[in-house]
Write a structure and sequence with these properties.
This protein is mainly beta. Helix content is 4%, strand content 48%.
Length: 327
């Protein structure tokens, strides 16, 4: 669903592929049917109304991204996606649509009145994209995934920076950004709610390096038959240090540590030398963790009131006062 409080227009995507539009009365006690859009051939997955453009954007399980004129009801255009879409955001200033799909890919599309052109695609998740959040001020896109991770993509910085955030133990179900405090709110299907402080200088996680032997003790990994034969040593399993990215053996990476500025709020594998270099100050958390006590399937944050709404698989809707933590 997509609701616009200024026009009191409610757009509801249906399993049949159509989108039903209603106008709510001033006291919110009555819904008047206004229009039905025949938008998709399969279940509607995301609906987004853009008041500034008078556009209704939608995606469906038919792998189509479409946009309609909400004044005339006419379809303006359509674009075929690689997989069915589970996340959609739009930037009014540049007319860019951000489309996240089940393959884990995010696609940026440029929309004109009736023309859609591909800008770029990028992929950083190993699971499907489950949530997108766009900050038009900092020009940063956040994506959440079933792989439990969140990635912050610096779209406006033009440096290709992608910051990974690891703070959930289950599928990320929702993302909201409080721009006035520069805090990201995320929730997962196990009921976890995480408040991330984004007003800190974060670091990109390094790429994992390739090597046939441990880059610390030089013992061969188990596929390096030649070095195993020459050195008469048994091959070891390869691991990677999350801080420096070097390929290391288990003995040289026996330590664990949090690295909050790199997004690792939970303890991860690091090599022994990196473990010695991480100070207590480096381990200071940059996020707070809260338990909603129900499996969250949807969330919405209202910055004007400081209220967070969550709905769960238990058929319960909860309203949270976030002012003590988002301030």
């Amino acid at each position: 669903m997509s609701f616009n409080p200024e026009t009191r227009r409610l757009s509801v995507g249906m399993d049949t592929g159509s989108i039903c539009e209603f106008v709510l009365s001033e006291d919110y006690n009555k819904m008047t049917p206004a229009r039905t859009y025949q938008a998709h051939q399969g279940r509607v997955t995301v609906v987004l109304f853009v008041l500034e453009m008078e556009w209704l954007l939608s995606t469906g399980q038919d792998k189509n991204f479409t946009w309609h004129c909400s004044e005339s009801g006419q379809q303006l255009g359509t674009y075929r996606t690689a997989a069915w879409v589970s996340g959609l955001q739009f930037d009014v200033e540049t007319r860019h649509a951000f489309v996240g799909d089940q393959s884990g890919q995010v696609t940026i599309l440029k929309l004109e009145q009736d023309i859609c052109s591909l800008v770029t695609t990028f992929k950083g998740h190993t699971g499907n994209v489950t949530a997108l959040c766009w900050d038009p001020v900092q020009r940063v896109l956040f994506s959440g995934s079933s792989d439990h991770s969140i990635i912050m993509w610096d779209i406006g910085g033009r440096k290709g920076t992608a910051i990974e955030l690891q703070g959930h133990n289950d599928k990320v179900q929702g993302l909201c950004y409080a721009s006035h405090t520069r805090q990201l709110i995320s929730c997962s299907s196990d009921g976890g709610i995480v408040i991330w402080n984004m007003d800190v200088t974060r670091q990109e996680t390094p790429e994992w390096l390739d090597s046939d032997s441990c880059q610390k003790c030089e013992q061969p990994f188990f596929w390096n038959f030649k070095q195993m034969w020459d050195s008469k040593k048994i091959g070891l399993r390869q691991h990677h240090c999350r801080k420096c990215g070097q390929a290391v053996c288990g003995k040289c990476s026996s330590k664990r540590s949090t690295i909050p500025l790199m997004g690792f709020e939970f303890e991860v594998r690091v090599c022994d030398s990196c473990h010695e270099s991480i100070t207590d100050e480096d381990r200071a958390p940059t996020a707070t963790f809260h338990d909603s006590k129900h499996g969250i399937v949807y969330m919405h944050y209202e910055p004007t009131t400081g209220n967070l709404l969550t709905s769960g698989a238990d058929k319960v809707i909860k309203l949270w006062d976030m002012t003590p933590v988002v301030s």
